[in-house]
Each structure stands twice: as C-alpha cells, then as structure tokens.
Write a structure and sequence with these properties.
- This protein has helices at residues 2-7, 105-110, 122-128, and strands spanning 21-30, 33-42, 60-71, 75-86, 102-103, 119-120, 131-140, 144-153, 158-169, 173-179, 191-197.
- By secondary structure, the protein is mainly beta.
- The strands form 2 sheets. A 9-stranded antiparallel beta sheet has the order 1-2-3-4-7-8-9-10-11, with no helix packed on it. It has a two-stranded antiparallel ribbon with strand order 5-6.
- The chain starts with a helix and ends with a strand.
Length: 199
C-alpha cells in the first residue's frame, strides 16, 4: 500500500504484476474414485517496490482423491482428501548439507518432547511443511451441499475443523461459502465465498 511506501521511505512502487499458469489433470481409476493433480502459480516472480527484491509466486503442487460413498437420485455423499506443497522461495542450487537439517522448537513443545529442539531430516521437515486436509460433502438432489473437514498445517500452526455449504442453480451455477476460522490460534472470522460455473 502507498502508506507503507511513504512511512518507511522505501522508494516508489507498491504494486506489481506477473503472469501465472495453472495445469491440472483428473483421472478416474474406478467408478467411484477420482484422482486429481494440479500445479498452480507457475510463472516469474513479482516485485512490489523499485528497490525491493523479487518475490516468488506461491507455486503449489496438489494431489487429491475423491471417493463417492453414496450416490442415488436424491443423495450423494463423498469423502475427499488432498495434500498441498508450496514451493515458493526454495532455491535448491544455493543449499548445502547444513541446510538439510531443520529445527522445529514449537513442534517439540507440542509433542511434549524432553529436548528443546527437534532435529529433523529434510524429508521429515518437508512433510511437516505440507498441508493436509480431508472432509465429507453431502449433496441433496444436486441442489444443496453441506461440508465439514479437517485441515492440518503443522509448521504454519493452522490446525482445526472447517465447515461450508453451497447452492447449485440450474445445474450449472454454484455458490459456496466456506468457514475456516477454527484453524487459527487467534480469534478471527474468516469466510470464503466462491462462484463457479459448469458447462
């Protein structure tokens, strides 16, 4: 924002532009099972101020699975789970052996460990720095949807239940509301409203 630029005397700017590409694929290995894979926000970095550094876009890899539990003319019940890994800010060429040891003091405290710090391998640290989520969605007569899920981001300290619902209009337009306030360790009212169109 302009006031940040002025108050901190960091020069002109405050806005940035970039271009990103998303790719995805969906595969149905069985009648009631769907697999999805996407790679989003691929593109050059963005610079917000003239003297500032170039920030990477939050490139993310997502893998998801949907399993239909119940499906008839009136009711649909499905289970979904996905795993998300964000790659922004990782420059593998600049890393050395010492960078592959990660310290997670807060995780040690959560696990009631007797040591002050957990020393993790790169694979363990990468897993803990990955977002996991799963949930259920109930759809009535292809008109009304209710959702409940659980989200886990250990490193970002975002863990908790999520809720949502939606309305489908004329089998093509979908309006959704999601609430994820419970995943934060501070008081907030977070709503996510989305509009989708299917053809």
């Amino acid at each position: 924002p302009d006031w940040v630029v002025q108050d901190f005397s960091i020069g002109s700017g405050g806005q940035g532009q970039s271009v990103a590409l998303d790719l995805g694929v969906i595969y149905n290995p069985a009648k009631n099972t769907t697999l999805g894979l996407s790679l989003s926000n691929m593109g050059p970095g963005i610079q917000y101020i003239s003297e500032g550094s170039i920030d990477d876009l939050p490139c993310a890899l997502r893998l998801g699975i949907k399993q239909m539990i119940l499906e008839n003319r009136l009711n649909k019940l499905m289970f979904t789970t996905d795993i998300t890994k964000v790659f922004a800010g990782i420059n593998l060429d600049s890393l050395n052996d010492s960078d592959f040891v990660f310290e997670f003091t807060r995780l040690a405290e959560k696990k009631n460990s007797t040591v002050d710090t957990l020393h993790l391998s790169m694979l363990e640290a990468e897993f803990l720095d990955t977002w996991l989520s799963f949930g259920l969605e109930y759809l009535y007569y292809d008109l009304f949807a209710l959702r409940a899920g659980y989200f886990v981001d250990y490193f970002g300290e975002r863990v908790g239940f999520t809720f949502g619902g939606g309305v489908v209009v004329k089998n093509s337009i979908r309006i959704d509301l999601g609430v994820d306030s419970e995943i934060y360790n501070f008081d907030t009212t977070n709503y996510r409203i989305s509009l989708g169109f299917k053809w």
